[in-house]
Amino acid sequence: MDSAVQTINNLTIGFTSQKGKQISILKNISTTIKKGETVGIVGESGSGKSTLALAMMGYVKHGLYTISGECLFHSNNLLEMKNKDLENIRGRKIAMIPQNAGQSLTPNLKIGYQIDEALKLHTDLKKEERDKKISELLNKVRLPSPEIMAQRYPHELSGGQQQRVAVAMALAGNPELLLLDEPTTGLDVTTQAHVLELLNFIAKDTGTSMVYVSHDLGAIAQVSDRVIVMYSGEIVLDGPVRSILKNPIHPYTFGLLKSIPKLTSPGLPDSMSGSQPQPGTIKTGCSFYERCNLAEDNCKNNSPTLEYIDDLNTSVRCFKYKELINVKETNLDTVKSINNDVLQNEILDISKVSISYAKQKFIDQLLNKIDDSNPTVKDINININKGETLALVGESGSGKSTILKSIAGLLKTKDGMIMFDKDKVLSNDLKMRDPGFLRAIQLIFQNPDESLNPNHTVEEIVSQPLRLYFGLKGDELKQKIIEVLEKVRLGEFYLTRYPRQLSGGEKQRVAVARAFAAKPDIILCDEVTSALDVSVQAAVLNLLQELKEDFGTTYIFVSHDLAVVRAISDRVAVLYQGRLCEIGPSKNVYQLPSHPYTEVLLGAVLEPDPDVKPKLVAEDIVEEKPPEKGCSFQGRCPRILGDICKNEVPPWQIGENGNSIRCHIKVEDLKKQQNIN
Amino acid sequence: MTLEKEQKKNNLQKVYEVIKTMASKPSGFIGLSILLFHVILAITSPLYVPYDYKAIDPSLMLQAPSSEYWFGTDSLGRDVFTRTILGGRTALTVTFFGSLIALLWGGALGIFCGLVGGKIDDVVMRIIDAFLSIPWILAMLLIVSLLGTTTLVLIPALGFFYGKGIVRVARAATHDVIAKDFIVSARARGHSNLSIIWNEILPNVRDAIMVEGAMRWSWMLLGFSSLSFLGFGVSPPTPDWGLMISNARGLMSFAYWAVLAPIFGLSSLIIGINLTADAFAKALGIDRSTKAPV
Asked: Which of B10, B182, B187 sits opposite A453 (nearest CB)?
């Protein structure tokens, strides 16, 4: 059991800057991957975790090179091997599963053919044996009816199925070591839980060693035996998963765990200040010094070494780890609970809204008639009060972003009305809307890289709404821009910067500043934190909450992350296939009894705790279209009653906690069923 | 300092940086030098030409290069050196303004089509495709023979024919940008289409269009010289490389100098523009090598 599959000794990888300086991306990495072990590598973007994973395959990205050290697979140094010899190892001995399987599969070749290619390359099997093996592999990754699946093209599969195919291809060569680079990051919560469970099963079944690279501590907690935490190209913590996640003894990991919103503890998580240093900027001392609460002068001047602590079986790179040994991570006192006094003062009333993506016929277009009996979004009734944060939750395809777009006027509604401030009707057409209403509703997008014009400076970006809505010019404009930037904790210093010169968190702050510059009444947040690192996410959530307290803004918050929603929202609406399933105050929605879909979602959430396993209640099938009649969730519902669910739209019931549930099952029965199971 | 002034300063600085980056690589430096040399020559050459370019002297017919006539003389006894250094002036002027026109209408139509999309985009692009399928030289010959060979006809005609490709490039570049959230964001804020084009799209597609324009310039130069060669460009006795090559090509076997000098002038200018355009693309971070010309 103890034989090492891969040993990395003092590995340093870096590049030479334009000025001829050598800059390290990975610094003195030493670790061993044992046979049958699953090692999780955690770190935020830029921590070098992907570079390390690639080095484990003997690959160094273009422009980078090995400065020192070695990466031994059994006893061969991969980094010095010739390409020809590496070919025999890659795929056969070490396989990799990439992040986005949809992009790594060739779109115009059938699944079976692609797996066959991998088999041809990595095994000596004959044609008939290979055919059998393909079915076997597809069975192993639990794809239904392998023979039919093999005849399909990648685009005919869902994201989760594509990821399974990628796993099957990686297993084709019976590798000893499997490298997974963020394999579940783009997937829905329920799918993610299923894929992780599959990986766990495969690891046990085949005895393959796995290296699981991710930024998501929740996912890491579910699969790993051992966790390596990376920061700024260094290993800062390395030990068994339980001791790392339950009692982290490095201040970075400690802060990271505290900044993750959790289902079990409502309220906003603590945020970490600052951001990871750019490679090459740290000269002496600990790389985490700037952001560390425990830092002292010694940390600034001397670099800590990776120290092995015997009784914890953990290595840590910190001078002051002893202070953290006895601190329990589950320290709930520090969590700020949000307490908003929401008045019954309606600001937005969405009534009976349906939205259709169906292509219109030319004549219907002329008559302004949309004919679609089964629209993407149907019958949405939501009231939003002033100063409230309403969250729309659901998996991809649930129509949450669609609803957001129609509120912003970017999509026409098919039926229904959106009323603003009690009695003003918001026009369907953006061009017909009153400029005052346009100003009152602002959007913040998921990815600041896309929502900020790369050719504009921060000053120009923030000046757009100020010029458009308030007609400000010259010094007055500049003054106002600085004022708005200071509100989001960015100073005058940022005025002349371009988005590419900012970190992810700073960019999202600029996007927040642009939205608030319009003095809006409602801000629509579309997955605003999902492109951000965990520590930054907490900071942005905190910022949004503070701004809301200052300005009394109303948020409509769209997210797939239930823990984030739990942290920030007052009320939650759960959507499936464009239909509302449940709506209510967030603390009530998160409590059982609830709608079966909410139950499925809550069960699939990954907590950064190896002892809390996700409950896989429903299958992770992806439905492409909402059902013609009946309940929207009938296809996947684990508690389906029968024909009534298929034929009749379920009624609204008031749940025990004051949440509204749309289900045929009586609340009392739901309570019984959900408590027993 | 106000926003506008600062921006102006930023822009100037950007231009300076781009030129500096272009000149830092050998190929870019050579290209820029050749182009600069040709431009200076075109502007200043009338001041120091040794002979009159249209002075015909039958007694000096087809003289070999000598200290008196550096590049020899042509079949009418005119000095080839004089005619060569003057020969680029018309070509350079016509094609420069021609590509400017191509850039403007091609860029504008391309961005418009990319932005509005739908039926209008379909119709316009099919018309462009139809024009692309017409051999440009035949169409040019038709236009020139109907309207005459004055510069005022040549510049817009060349500008039109070489702008078609730019429409496609500008449209493609706009398509890349249009799906981005910052455009959606500007729309949701209620900006007008014109403001979206000017503020949000143009800064992002400008580089691609300019590089394409620079490339078209060198192609247009070749096209214009071909027209002259066929006798539809510049009318004699105005010196022009294409015309000179055409006139002297029959005598190539015994008076190679009369054809070699304009060839050298033309090809060096085209190489110069090409190298400059390539360096320009690289300095702006656009990789032309991966994109096939349209």
From this structure: B182
